[in-house]
Amino acid sequence: MKAGIVGLPNVGKSTLFNCLSNAKAQSANFPFCTIEPNIGVVNVPDSRVAKLEELVKPERVQMATVDIVDIAGLVRGASKGEGLGNQFLANIRETDAIIHVIRCFDNDNIIHVDTTIDPIRDKETIDFELQLKDLETLDKKLEKVKKTARTGNKEAQKELEVLEKVKKGLEAAVSVRAIELTTEEREEYITPTKFITDKPVLYVCNVDENSAVNGNDYVNAVKEAVKDENAEVIILAVGTEADITELETFEERQLFLEDLGLSEPGASVLIRAAYKLLKQQTYFTAGVKEVRAWTINIGDSAPQAAGVIHTDFEKGFIRAEVIAYEDFVKYGSEAKVKEAGKMKVEGKEYIVKDGDVMHFRFNV
After folding, report:
1. Residue 4 Cα to chain centre, angstroms
2. Which of 201, 155, 161 is nearest to 182 (CA)?
3. pTM for the full model?
């Protein structure tokens, strides 16, 4: 599962990517410096891992990860191939969620591709280009569905009705994710088409250092503009975050954050939000060899969770021994949890909860 960082050129995408992944995507003051998409495998900050490490004292620790993709800046006309439009749109289509970076700061030294600072215009530029591309995809699909519907095929007629509704929405500049459809209509007709504007989105308002805690008027305007989208808005001083990552020790970084009035780096907040946006959650395995956070989809069953470790675990699944994270911390060890009768034995139907500490029994 991947989240793609998108936005206009020079809004701070590559700088943000570098903060998140510590990879060094070229960051320069001109459009299109990120030509090929850069992919960073980023640890998901989780204080529970540190607590399990403290209790178990394992030989090694492995965090959960999320893939972040830094994609070249999009410009007006991208849907018709302007700038790096076609490449941008192909790259974003391959991601599962969108992190949309919007410039919410003034700085005469950093050129804006449209010369003035206007976050709402910038957001609408990106939305418009993605909507146009979705309309292109939709029109091709409609051609085929209309032909089948004319033969009297009831399923095609139902699909045609849904697609016409989506077309009307896109033509009114409404993204697919915001069009009112039933869950069944989405699953049946929308999800398989992989519309770009159907992907879940997280807005990142890139602000100056003084606005890192409370935001500014630009941020307020963005929040107002997206209030009906059911999307999260995060405030991040990306340039400042970059400065923090350059500091050598944890103590220095914490002092810097305290001076800003922040309890943790904004990048950590963003990574967790991206993880949630991708509808992912964590379960743990905890033994003397390793404490590890495993990534699964929300709603996965115990066998599916086991399959993340190895496909044999899923094929030969017998049962799962499950300890709630809170119980593990309360009693301090697996043995003491067992003594207290707090370990549960679950079968194939069990839906894994975020934070479960699990051990699988299998036979192949």
Report:
1. 7
2. 161
3. 0.82
